[in-house]
Amino acid sequence: MIDLGLIAQRLDEAAHNASAIKQLAEELTIEQAYEIQKQSIDRRLSRGEKRVGMKMGFTSRAKMVQMNVSDMIWGRLTDAMIEEEGGTIQLSNYIHPRVEPEVVYLLRKPLAGRITPLLALDAVEAIAPALEIIDSRYDDFKFSLTDVVADNCSSSGLVIGNWQWPDTDVSNLGLILSVNGKPMEFGSTAAILGNPIRSLVAAARMVAEAGEELPAGSLVMAGGATAAVALSSGERIELELESLGRASFSVE
Ligand code: OOG
Ligand code: MG
Description:
By secondary structure, this protein is α+β, with helices and mostly antiparallel strands. It has a single domain, classed as Alpha-Beta Complex (Fumarylacetoacetate hydrolase, domain 2). It is built from six helices and 13 strands. The strands form two sheets. Strands 1, 2, 3, 5, 6, 7, 10 and 11 form an eight-stranded mixed sheet that branches. It has a five-stranded mixed sheet with strand order 4-13-12-8-9, with no helix packed on it. Strand 8 and strand 9 (182-188) form a beta hairpin. It is globular. 2-oxoadipic acid binds at residues 57-58, 63, 67, 100, 132, 134, 136, 148, 153-154, 223-224. Residues 57-58, 63, 67, 100, 132, 134, 136, 148, 153-154, 223-224 line the site of 2-oxoadipic acid (OOG).
């Protein structure tokens, strides 16, 4: 018998203490991996954190190729993960953080189950440019699909730019991720499943498969549009997203 609770504890402690652990030796099913994720996030909730939504992972080819994983995955977001837009993060709070450009949806209605893109859009209150800070708890950022699911999909932080109206067309917007003013990654929101709204559709389906729903007020991160970039101290990270705006933070 695999002790899922013990693995959840090890992953939670690794995240809490910013210290890496070895890749899991156990052969997990995907259901067991999601159960570990749930239990490790429950530990955070019992320390007073609040669920604020969901993140989608591997919704673009760029991310699948970079991490050598080819299935869509999802993780749970808590309020403690939200970093101030334009603020500064401390590198010492992370193991080996990376940043990636995303878009984030804010829901005005609950979503769950099989829905059309039109229905998904109808539930959107606002859309914003976002930066996700991912920080795998595994040595060298190396993992299998079940390892990364158990580790809450490397979820660590998010920075949200200004909210825009939900009718803003985000299907194909150019984006630049720069470090200290130097462009590092170029891309388009179309890299996210052809249109990021499809990520919201998938989020509603996957959350329902887990017996949950996305309540009104949830944030849904659509997934990285380009490969992620490793962070170092002294850097200023900025995302410029055509017609949506910017999001930025500094690393100390
Ligand atoms: C896993 C998380 C994937 C995304 O946007 O595709 C993800 C990882 O790359 O460590 O956040
Ligand atoms: Mg991401």
